[in-house]
Amino acid sequence: MRHVDVGLVAKQQDLYDGFDDQYQCPILDEDKVIDELEEVMSEGGNVVDYHGCDFFPERWFHVVVVLRTDNTLLYDRLSKRGYSGQKLTDNVQCEIFQTILEEARDSYSHSMVHELPSNTPENFEQNVDIICTLISEWTSAHVK
Ligand SMILES: Nc1ncnc2c1ncn2[C@@H]1O[C@H](COP(=O)(O)OP(=O)(O)O)[C@@H](O)[C@H]1O
């Protein structure tokens, strides 16, 4: 199984289209990302890691996992990462409005989308177990 960190791939391959002055970060070129990942995704067996999902083709996935975090914990995590001001507030607000969960539900069939809490190291361990179980269930049902 491969871990595809979309942010890292974009950085390594320079898959950007301009710079966002407000958030002080490069803007992802979604079409270039799709082209870059198409071959590896069509082989299967990938875990794709990103903070958005609506631009990925549905055919790439059999399971979509949305990790959720309580707002106070998220605030502290993002501050530690160096986020502040509007960027910090917008990220926390996005979690309050469960924007990514809704994006996933709007983009993929509801039965594919799993929402998991990720507040504590125990949650982290549980989530790894749950995701491994989801993968092996799907594999035994579909790969002969
Ligand atoms: N389940 C968790 N329990 C405790 N701390 C966590 C958990 N998940 C993430 N963190 C903390 O938050 C930081 C950011 O996590 P990361 O997985 O990089 O978040 P994202 O990719 O969503 O921005 C990690 O370095 C870690 O310190």
TrEMBL record:
Transmembrane segments: none annotated. The keyword ATP-binding applies. One of its GO terms (molecular function) is ATP binding. InterPro entries: Adenyl_kinase_AK6 (IPR020618), P-loop_NTPase (IPR027417). Keywords: ATP-binding, Cytoplasm, Kinase, Nucleotide-binding, Nucleus, Ribosome biogenesis, rRNA processing, Transferase. The keyword Transferase applies. SUPFAM superfamilies: P-loop containing nucleoside triphosphate hydrolases (SSF52540). Its main location: nucleus. It catalyses: AMP + ATP = 2 ADP. It is found in: Nucleus. GO terms for cellular component: cytoplasm; nucleus. GO terms for biological process: rRNA processing. PANTHER family: ADENYLATE KINASE ISOENZYME 6, POS9-ACTIVATING FACTOR FAP7-RELATED. This is Adenylate kinase isoenzyme 6.
